[in-house]
Amino acid sequence: MVEAFLIGLLSLDLGILFASVEQMVKSSNSEEVTSDDLTPGKDDWEYKIVQVRGGGFRSLKAIQYVCQQEAKFGWTLLEKIDDNRLRLKRSISWRAKDSLLKQNPYRTDYGVSGDFMMFLSVMATLMVLAIPAYFGYKFMRHIFDDLEVKTPRQIQVPSPRPK
Predict the structure, then answer these.
(1) For the residues of the chain, what is the DSSP string, one character each?
(2) 34-116: what fold?
(3) What is the pTM of this model?
(4) Angstrom distance (rounded) from CA 105 to CA 99
(5) Which residues contact 83 (CB under 8 A, 6 or more apart)?
(6) What is the tens place of the pLDDT at every residue in 102-149?
(7) How many CB atoms lie within 10 A of CB 84?
(8) Which of 36, 88, 118, 132 is the most exposed place for a label (fewest CB within 10 A)?
């Protein structure tokens, strides 16, 4: 019974570990955002893609909030690419005002930063490893406490019988 519990706990531990690693890999790959050919042409527009992790743009309120924040810098919503990315555009004439701004008008990330998500993933992985290790330690400590340990002097070796 105990062996089955420990094997189940270990397999759950490994499953969570692999899922955490997969999530870290996905989050690092999602930072490489590619777009179609959106170079400013004769219209003198510049474009950017704003991204958020975890499908934050599913909510209309989140999209409206980002659009209000970006409108201060001249950006307007061009399209919603998916639940994680929005494409924005603005006139190049807004560049003259960029030096007066307190925030970076070219920021592309909203929500929780990638570094913080990486920190949370590492901490969750450590907790997933530490909890079974603690219970394994307690279990083995309980077993070893019940063992009778003798020093070499306490062990009585029978003397050899003469032939």
Answers:
(1) -HHHHHHHHHHHHHHHHHHHHHHHHHHHHTT-----S----TT-EEEEEEEESSSGGGSHHHHHHHHHHHHTTT-EEEEE-SSSEEEEEEEGGGGGGGGG-SS-TT--EESS-HHHHHHHHHHHHHHHHHHHHHHHHHHHHHHHHHS----TTT--PPPPPP-
(2) Ribosomal Protein S8; Chain: A, domain 1 (3.30.1370)
(3) 0.48
(4) 10
(5) 55, 56, 57, 58
(6) 888 888 888 776 778 789 899 999 999 999 889 988 888 888 887 777
(7) 19
(8) 36
* 50/115 Cα distance (integer angstroms): 17
d(CA 70, CA 75): 5
Domain ranges for the chain: 34-116
Tokens 């777009």 sit at which residue? 35
